[in-house]
Design brief:
single chain, about 70 residues, alpha+beta, three-stranded antiparallel beta sheet, elongated, disordered C terminus
Amino acid sequence: MNAKVSTEQQPIKTKLLELVDDILAHDGYGDIRVEVRILKRQQKEVILHCGKQYRYVIDAPAEQSSQAVKG
């Protein structure tokens, strides 16, 4: 994994863990939904839904998954 991608993903991972903590501490029902869209210029938009939406745009790693599917 590229170190740059990992650094870009850190705010998303931090917010997701924060939202999980909020849901667990909440006195009732809650849900979290993660939506990922592929954008132009090898980027992805990550949307965290939890009452509010938290949007992030990060660079997408080079496509290696298509080779794994073929093999």
